[in-house]
Design goal:
Number of strands: 12
Distance between the termini: 32 Å
Strand content: 25-35%
Radius of gyration: 20 Å
Helix content: 25-40%
Structural class: alpha+beta
Number of helices: 9
Order of helices and strands: HEEHEHEEHEEEEHHEEEHHH
Length: about 300
């Protein structure tokens, strides 16, 4: 039987990362964010009052939804109009998420398979509850004994979010106009100095999806997950400074760290998914096996 305390802590993490679906969340009071009649997000009520000051861009709430004005009828016009509002709000409003402005463009669409309707500054996406996508790479090594060990990264103490926490081997958000595989290769090279030829051997294996809320807004996120087997003699190296160290750890140690409040939360979810797929967590011994599966793969 699995350790009950470990299982409980993992379940608590999954519930926190899906708290937008929980009773008592802000979901009931959020406005749907719509573009051309298509829902692309959730606007928390406290931010809806800010948007009311910009009627030339955002229509007044109607039927529980806030829409972009119909005169904004192209990718470029929508993106530019919202960007101008956000630049003004950034200067005037006390919104903590905008203090982390990144000058990174994320595309906005109802579903990943749909054409993007506009782009939005990454730091502002939680104010509109628009879906964010990323790529996470699990690095691992198989020793001569057949034992598997996992590569983990320790985030830089200067990172804007979760400084000093454990992370996957490499990870990054999907910026506008850049594909999944290109993002994977880029992040592997920049963060861990993994050559392109080796990074391209990473296998797409899963997605991990969840929606949480906090004081900065609503975060519907989906991560495209890849597994990359690294040769036993290969060691990742610090690249762009977003990582302070790399560790090659046995699975038992990885499991211990998962519930020690050491990980960036969504990276812990990606590792949990890895442990399930590689049968380090099995339904005969883990009582919350189905709850883990459901918590890792929520509909956005």
């Amino acid at each position: 039987m699995a350790n009950a305390a470990w299982s409980d802590k993992m379940l608590q993490l999954l519930r926190r990362m899906n708290n937008f679906h929980s009773p008592g969340s802000c979901r009931a009071s959020c406005f749907r964010f719509e573009i051309s009649g298509q829902q692309v997000g959730w606007i928390p009520p406290q931010f809806a009052s800010v948007l009311a000051r910009y009627p030339e861009v955002f229509s007044p709430p109607q039927g529980g939804a806030i829409s972009l004005c119909q005169s904004l009828d192209s990718y470029e016009s929508r993106s530019e109009a919202v960007a101008a509002v956000l630049q003004t709000v950034r200067q005037e409003a006390e919104l903590s998420c905008l203090r982390g402005w990144r000058d990174e463009k994320y595309e906005v669409m109802p579903r990943f398979c749909d054409p993007p309707l506009m782009w939005m500054e990454r730091a502002a996406t939680s104010l509109f509850g628009v879906k964010r996508y990323g790529v996470h790479i699990n690095g691992y090594t198989v020793h001569e004994s057949g034992e598997l060990s996992m590569w983990l990264a320790r985030r830089s103490p200067t990172k804007q979010t979760y400084p000093g926490r454990l992370d996957n081997l490499a990870a990054g958000g999907l910026a506008a106009g850049i594909g999944i595989k290109r993002t994977l290769v880029k992040e592997c090279e920049e963060e861990a100095c993994i050559p392109e030829a080796l990074a391209e051997k990473a296998q797409p294996v899963s997605t991990v999806s969840y929606t949480y809320e906090d004081e900065e807004g609503v975060f519907p996120e989906s991560q495209f997950v890849f597994d990359l087997e690294l040769p036993p003699d290969f060691k990742p190296r610090i690249g762009d400074g977003e990582v302070q160290d790399f560790y090659l750890l046995p699975i038992d140690k990885v499991k211990e760290l998962l519930v020690a409040d050491e990980f960036k939360p969504n990276c812990a979810m990606v590792v949990l998914d890895f442990l399930i797929r590689h049968s380090f967590i099995e339904p005969d011994t883990e009582p919350f096996y189905q709850e883990f599966i459901t918590g890792l793969h929520q509909t956005l």
